[in-house]
Each structure stands twice: as C-alpha cells, then as structure tokens.
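Entry type: protein chain
Record version: 2
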Amino acid sequence: YGAAVGHCRLYRVRGSSLSPLTRDETLYEELLQHGQPALEWHRDVLTRALGAGGARPWQIIAVPQEPGAAHLLCTGAVHGCLPPERLAAWTLEALAEPDLSVAVRHLWQRGHDWLAQEARPARTSVHEYQRRAALVLMREPLVAKIRYLNTDLD
C-alpha cells in the first residue's frame, strides 16, 4: 500500500516514465476536479493534512508489487517546482545507482542545483527547497531511502 497527504505525491517509476499514483490534496486540485476555475494561490490551501482532524486525513492506495518497479514519494517543494520531465529523468538516472542512499542524495542535489542555476524565479526558492524538499525512493522488494531537510534518514 501507499499513502500520501497534503502536498505529498506518490509516483510509480516504470520504463522511462514517472506516473502519479496520488494527487495533491489542495483547494486547487479540488476545484479543477469539479470543473471550477482555480487560481495559483489555491495550490497552497491544503484540504487534508495530518493532525487536521477528519476520519481519513490521507489517501491510501493499493500499489501492486512489480519486479524491478520503483516508486518516488516527494513533497510539493519537489514536484511543485521541478519540471515533470526533469524530475522523471533525474529519478531514472538516480535509480541506476545500486545504493539507494547515494541515489536519493543525487536526486535531491539535482533538484537543488537546477533551482540554483537554471530556474526562472519559481514558486519555491532554493532556500525553501532546502527547508521543505523531502524525497523517498523505493525499490521492489521494498527498500526505501529518505532524504529530508538535506539529511539522510533510514
């Protein structure tokens, strides 16, 4: 199973593509889902969050095991400011590394460097990325490595 809440997103990495398995739980996404106009500031209004009450504060989905499959769980500071095609390419590049600790550090650093050097002014600054970017890379059989606040967690 996989779970996500708020600005976190869970992706499946298959072949050369990165497919979202969950969506942001923001006012922006809810408005779009109901065919209503959404403004940029709606992206920052969470409709679900841990500790906010409610019967089910997170999305839980069944994630079938697939030999050789990989998954990426990341915060909005990652998927919200990095172009999807770059995030996909960098994730695939990172997963080529046999050591997931090295892979997740590499992926985090690629996003940081892109924001620092190549990005136009974005919603998330380099400083915000350093403070809020979290990544979890997972492989089948389940092995996960986490990069949070520029620190490795096991």
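Comment: The longest strand covers residues 9-14.
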